[in-house]
Design goal:
Layout: E1 10-12, H1 16-32, E2 38-44, H2 45-49, H3 56-63, E3 67-73, E4 83-90, E5 93-94, E6 98-104, E7 107-110, H4 127-137, H5 141-148, H6 153-173, H7 188-193, H8 201-221, E8 225-227, H9 237-249, H10 253-273, H11 278-281, H12 287-301, H13 306-318, H14 336-356, H15 366-379, H16 391-395
Parallel strand pairs: 2-3
Antiparallel strand pairs: 1-8, 2-4, 4-5, 4-6, 6-7
Helix pairs in contact: 1-3, 5-10, 6-8, 6-10, 8-9, 8-14, 9-12, 9-14, 10-12, 12-13, 12-14, 13-14, 13-15
Length: about 400
C-alpha cells in the first residue's frame, strides 16, 4: 500500500476524480507535450456524463497551456469509467494519444505505464495480516503507521488535521447559494446556530456534527479547498467526527492525529483491495469508506482495541453496501451533502454497536466486506455509478 499522503490530499472540490485527478493528468500532459500546437481533449464515461456539474472542463481549461477543444463522448464505453484522452497535434498532424484514467481520490493512472506515482511503503495489504503483525510486535495501528510510512507522516497528518478544521470553520461562516443550476442554499451556518427549544447537550452536539459535515461538503461543492477523506464527495464525514470528538471528549490534537493515521489505514485498505471511486463502485465506495474510516478514528481515540476498531469499520462499510451514486444534474450537492451528514452519525452508531458486541464472535471481517463492496459495485448498473442517469438524478423533476 502507498503512503497515507496518497489518500489524504488537500485540493479543490467538488470531485477528486473529476477535478483533482484531471488537473493532475493535464499537468502531466503539459510536461510531456510542451511542443505541440493544439490539443483535442475527449472525456468519456462519468467524466462525460457529469463533467459539467463536476467542473471537469473548467479545471482542464484552467490548467491546459495549449490551444484546445474539449469533447464529451457519452456513447463509447471506455476501459475505465473516468477516462481522458489528450490528442496532441503538431503542424496539423496528430501525435500519439495520451490516455489517462482518474481512478479516485485524486489519483491517476496512465495507460501503458506501471503505477509509479509512489512507492509501496506498507508491506501488508489486508487487515488480517496487519492484525497478526501488530499482535506479534505488540503494537497498535497507529504505531504500525508510524513504523512503515514516511518519516514525516505525523507532520503531514498535522497539516491534514489543520485543513479539516479550517474547512469546517470556513463553511460555518458562509451564507448564500452554491454554484450551479440547482441553486442550493448553504445550510451549515443555520444548522450550527439554530435555536432548538428544549435541546439537551447531546442533541446539540449531534446538531453541530451535522453542521460540520455540511460545512465541509458545501465548501467542496463550491470548489474550495478540502481534504480527500477518501474523496472530495465524501470529504465531510471524517472532519465532522473529528471535530465532534474534540467537542464532546476533549480529544487532543496529538490523539486526533493518531486517529487520522488509523482512519487512513482503513481507507488505504479499501483503496487497495476494492475502490474509493463512485464511478467504479457507486457511492458505497466513497461515503461507505468515509464512514468506515470515521468509525475507526472514533473507536481509536476513545481507546478501543484492534478488534473493536475493525468491527466498527466493518459495520460502517457493510451497511452502506449497494449505495448508489446518483448526483442530480451531475452536481456534488444532492444527495451528496446530506449524505455526508448522515454518514457521520452512522460512524458514531457503528462504534457504539461494536462496543456492545463481542468482537470475538463476529463472523464478518473487514477484508471480506472490502471484497463484497467491490463485487457489489461492479454489479451496479452503469446508471447508478456517477452518470446521473439513474436513481434521484433520473427521478428528480425540478427545473
Amino acid at each position: 500500500m502507498h503512503s497515507l499522503k496518497e489518500l489524504f490530499k488537500i485540493g479543490n472540490g467538488p470531485s477528486s476524480s473529476h477535478t483533482i485527478g484531471p488537473k493532475k493528468a493535464t499537468l502531466e500532459f503539459n510536461k510531456r507535450y510542451s511542443d505541440c500546437d493544439y490539443v483535442k481533449v475527449i472525456l468519456y464515461g462519468s467524466l462525460a456524463l457529469t463533467g459539467k456539474g463536476h467542473l471537469t472542463d473548467y479545471i482542464i481549461d484552467k490548467t491546459l497551456t495549449k490551444n484546445h477543444d474539449i469533447e464529451f463522448n457519452y456513447l463509447d464505453l471506455p476501459p475505465h469509467p473516468n477516462t481522458i484522452d489528450f490528442i496532441p497535434y503538431k503542424n496539423h498532424l496528430p501525435l500519439p494519444r495520451f490516455r489517462v484514467f482518474s481512478v479516485g481520490g485524486g489519483a491517476i493512472r496512465i495507460e501503458g505505464e506501471k503505477e509509479a506515482e509512489s512507492a509501496n511503503v506498507y508491506p501488508l495489504n489486508s487487515l488480517q495480516d496487519i492484525k497478526e503483525y501488530c499482535q506479534k510486535e505488540n503494537i497498535n495501528l497507529f504505531e504500525f503507521v508510524k513504523r512503515f510510512d514516511d518519516k514525516d507522516i505525523l507532520e503531514y497528518l498535522e497539516t491534514i488535521y489543520n485543513q479539516m478544521l479550517l474547512s469546517i470553520d470556513n463553511g460555518l461562516k458562509k451564507d448564500g447559494v452554491l454554484q450551479g443550476k440547482l441553486q442550493i442554499k448553504r445550510k451549515a451556518k443555520m444548522l450550527f446556530n439554530k435555536d432548538v427549544e428544549g435541546e439537551g447537550l447531546n442533541a446539540k452536539l449531534i446538531r453541530h456534527l451535522y453542521a460540520y459535515a455540511y460545512a465541509v461538503s458545501e465548501e467542496n461543492a463550491d470548489g474550495f479547498e478540502i481534504v480527500t477523506a477518501p474523496t472530495c464527495g465524501s470529504c465531510g464525514v471524517l472532519p465532522a467526527v473529528l471535530k465532534y470528538s474534540i467537542d464532546k471528549f476533549g480529544v487532543t490534537k496529538e490523539k486526533a492525529i493518531e486517529g487520522l493515521a488509523v482512519a487512513g489505514i482503513i481507507g488505504n485498505l479499501v483503496k487497495t483491495n476494492a475502490s474509493i471511486s463512485g464511478a467504479e463502485a457507486g457511492c458505497q465506495a466513497e461515503i461507505g469508506t468515509a464512514c468506515a474510516m470515521s468509525a475507526a478514528y472514533y473507536a481509536y481515540v476513545l481507546g478501543s482495541d484492534f478488534n473493536h476498531i475493525e468491527q466498527a469499520s466493518e459495520i460502517a462499510l457493510e451497511h452502506h453496501l449497494g449505495l448508489t451514486c446518483d448526483p442530480i444534474m451531475g452536481y456534488v450537492q444532492i444527495p451528496c451533502i446530506e449524505r455526508n451528514a448522515v454518514a457521520a452519525v452512522r460512524a458514531l452508531d457503528a462504534y457504539n454497536l461494536a462496543k456492545l458486541l463481542d468482537s470475538n464472535e463476529s463472523k464478518i471481517s473487514f477484508d471480506l466486506i472490502c471484497k463484497t463492496m467491490l463485487e457489489t459495485g461492479h454489479d451496479l448498473t452503469r446508471e447508478y455509478r456517477e452518470t446521473s442517469k439513474g436513481g434521484l438524478a433520473k427521478c428528480y423533476k425540478g427545473e
